Amino acid sequence: xxxxxxxxxxxxxxxxxxxxxxxxxxxxxxxxxxxxxxxxxxxxxxxxxxxxxxxxxxxxxxxxxxxxxxxxxxxxxxxxxxxxxxxxxxxxxxxxxxxxxxxxxxxxxxxxxxxxxxxxxxxxxxxxxxxxxxxxxxxxxxxxxxxxxxxxxxxxxxxxxxxxxxxxxxxxxxxxxxxxxxxxxxxxxxxxxxxxxxxxxxxxxxxxxxx
Length: 211
Prior knowledge:
The structure is a single chain. The protein is built from no helices and 14 strands. By secondary structure, it is mainly beta. The protein has one domain: Immunoglobulin-like. The protein has a 4-stranded antiparallel beta sheet, with no helix packed on it. A 4-stranded antiparallel beta sheet has the order 11-9-13-14, with no helix packed on it.
């Protein structure tokens, strides 16, 4: 049996900015999936004040797999038309009771003013990169693009990821582009995505005051 527990917070999109807020509950994981828990009970009793032989019974059960994860991050970012490599920073923690794989997918969303571009191209989209050198900052050419499942050890330190896109030319103040980072937890028993939680919507802006 695979149990999935997750909480997804609401996001905030602001004019002239790219930003989102994430809230997650962190759950303690104490027992490894697949562990066997045994219990033994003994009853001592008497009959007419005479002690009888104790009665003993034992039982055991196997701990289920529980998939849990925590996504945080998403600071506000201003951008300018034509500005490359605008970055959102997120962290992912595996709080499951088993080592798990995750997929991370960044996408442009409908209902905004323009779409971000895949870095270094004229193609609409964004890329997701892992903080390869673990310095907390996006380093083009060093941090590797996420193109396959990401493996995270249970209760290990968080991993940092970057959602990166280029701003197209021709945008004006107060315009926003909405993107979404979706994190899928992979069921370790079936290798199929079994838990989905989006990091939320984030507003990019085309602004002369981008930084």
